[in-house]
Amino acid sequence: MRVHVVSDVHGNSEDLAKAGEGADALVCLGDLILFLDYADHSRGIFPDLFGVESADRIVALRTARRFDEARAYSRRLWDGLDREAATEAAVRKQYAELFAAFPTPTYATYGNVDMPPLWPEYARAGVNVLDGETAVIGGWRFGFVGGGLRTPMNTPYEIDDETYAAKIAALGEVDVLCTHIPPEVPDLCYDTVARRFERGSAQLLEALHTLRPRYHLFGHVHQPLVQRMRVGATECVNVGHFNATGTPWVLEW
């Protein structure tokens, strides 16, 4: 059995269309949308609406962790515009391209920058959307938990710790735990380029010790200090920033 796994697609529909080649199934761990590319400030919904100079400014503020200033600057840019309508129109355009690129079968969950209410409109037959749910793939039980936890970044799909913990509890025992965010382990949460810790989940870390899955697969941290490590009986793997690499991580058994 061969499964290809991607995360943090961020608009890379071209490589996504090839990601399932040679695999029995594709697993996607979210963040399909590209709001703003921190490596190339000309790409994404934000610069399309407000220009590259505005994108440069917002990235500089966020990188400096000046989140209040970043939010105030963003509010000024949006003043007079219908933010919800403009964002949804741009997201719909990206989702139409990205969901069309998914092979069959695909098993997908949400990232913290995704908009879950729109997914049912684009998930055709063979594209299975799971959150707090399981699927059997090649005889192994895969559990999926989507979204991220609350942060100062205030991205579209952040949820409270209790809701996130309930989704983990709903899975039961699994062979492969699939999430967007990592467990709360410093080496797995630190981004070496952004030079900050992304938020991981203490509940996920607890689940690794109690459920003891074979693998825990996740993304979210684009340039992790450590890409892979063992926690107890579980091999934890950051499957990579697919937007930049265009290459899926491969799981075979």
Can you walk me through this structure?
By secondary structure, this protein is an alpha/beta fold. The protein is 33% helix and 22% strand. It is built from ten helices and 15 strands. The chain has helices at residues 13-16, 45-50, 52-63, 67-78, 83-101, 119-122, 161-169, 186-189, 202-211, 242-245, and strands spanning 2-6, 25-28, 106-108, 127-129, 133-137, 140-145, 148-149, 158-159, 176-179, 190-191, 196-197, 215-218, 228-231, 234-238, 249-252. A six-stranded mixed β-sheet has the order 5-6-9-12-14-13. A hairpin with a 4-residue loop joins strand 10 (190-191) and strand 11. The longest helix has 19 residues, at 83-101. The radius of gyration is 18 Å and the shape is globular. The N and C termini lie close together (5 Å).
Query: What would you call the structural class?
Result: alpha/beta
Total DSSP helices: 10
Could you tell me the strand content as a percent range? Answer: 15-25%
Largest sheet: 6 strands, mixed
Strand order of the largest sheet: 5-6-9-12-14-13
- Low-confidence sequence ranges: none
Q: What is the element string, with H for helices and E for strands?
A: EHEHHHHEHEEEEEHEHEEHEEEHE
**End-to-end distance:** 5 Å
- Overall shape: it is globular
Cα-atom radius of gyration: 18 Å
Number of strands: 15
Mean pLDDT: 96
- Give the helix proportion (percent range): 25-40%
